[in-house]
Amino acid sequence: MANKLDPMDLKQIITLHLDGYSNRKIGSTLGISRNTVNTYMQLFEGSKYSLEQLLTLDIEQLSELFSSFTTVDTQRHNSLMLYFETVNKARNHPGFTFLYHYAQYAQTVANPYSYTQFMEHYNRKYKEEKGSMKLEHEPGKEMYIDFAGKKLSYIDQNTGEIISVEVFVAILPNSQYTYVQACPSQKKEDLIICCTNALNFYGGVPLAIVSDNLKSAVSRASKYESQINRSFKDFASHYNCIVNPTRIYAPQDKALVENAVHLVYQRIYYPIREMTFFSLEELNAELRRMLITYNQLLFQRKEASRVELFQSVERQYLKALPCTTYQIKDYKRAKVQKIGYVYFSPDKSYYSVPYRYIGHHTMIHYTNTSVEIYYNHLRIAIHKRNPKKGNYNTIKEHLSSTHQSYTSWSPEYFKNQAAPHGVHLVKCVEKILCNVDYPEIGYKRVIGLIQLHKSYGSQRLDKACEIALNANVATYTHIKNILRHNMDLKEAMFQELDANTNHIPVHQNIRGASAYQ
Asked: What per-residue confidence (pLDDT) applies to 162?
């Protein structure tokens, strides 16, 4: 079954086309069919927008304009490509034949290709990969990134603990101009921060960022079509470039950055091996100092250094940096609750959306400063992020007329709501709101408690609250159970029997109680 193109991929197609790539090369770079690229380019040209204007549109606007077309790479073709990986692993085994593997392939799929097509696809895919060649790198085209296999460390001044840190390495392959930074981990947040710093170091943006199938960048590795995680793809979109992971089982794709890591070991790691650092900032300051010296070293066979080649040749081919720095985005799914809010689990708080989306599932995009709620790629609400736990963040226009009163929620508001139903109910409301860390968390509980009068009446509800207060169990669940099991009625009956028998203790009227039950 075909899969729809991600709206972010549409921007990458436009970006590569504007950079002079042919449709065939765009398809090869992004791992999609050339026919799909042709189709979308025709749609772009037939729209009322220029390519430059399409590039400025939001993702949801692109999705609306070009939502009904899908890729033509079928599951049948993908399964064949994956099977070829098994074939390649056995190529050097004595007695290997393609006919044997084709017979196995034909038995494992429902709709196999013919043997002729099988060999045609194999030869077409691997005819250029049988040998190894020196890759020529165009200036400004790519930035290779990787984490060094060996870590560095610093000493925590407060505890004396040795803290190991990862080392991020980036290189522009044409000039081999190198960037190095230590960071706490290989998580996507640290990777994106390091990539942002690398682009600022270079003062421009290459056409593509080539990663070594890092878990923080790639959701699912594949030899043919890796899936980039959404946060890293959004980062690339902000900087108007693409992410192009190296192929698995293709070591030549990452040889350059691995050689750069090896040189970093020799030129940076070794000279600082006996130095002691007491913070990550102090370690990075020394790395930056060593990096200046490293990039100024002359190549053995060239009369220039890395920094000279970068400044004289490669810098002019880099795209300009955007005006704003990228803020890391994360994503959470949330269903709009009946009162018109989505629950934001990282802060344990709530954000309002227009009431017409009640009951729908949404996607929350959030940064350190903002929270955006999307429904089907359409942004339906945006809030300034509030880190206070349990808080209800409300835009009054989002609420229906029946929900407008929610904006005035407070302990006093709920006491006033409870007052007509009895003094014991008011005391229970006060007790519930006092026993939570944040008043907003108790609001739902007291709403449910007050609503019990609709099912049981105000008099019974107030009596149940009195019983709960005497037993020191004034919670919504206990009061509801008292009403459900008619414990308030039994208490009233016992009190009436006590009055009629000159206040004889209740335990002496077991027969009467049993008869009543």
From this structure: 93
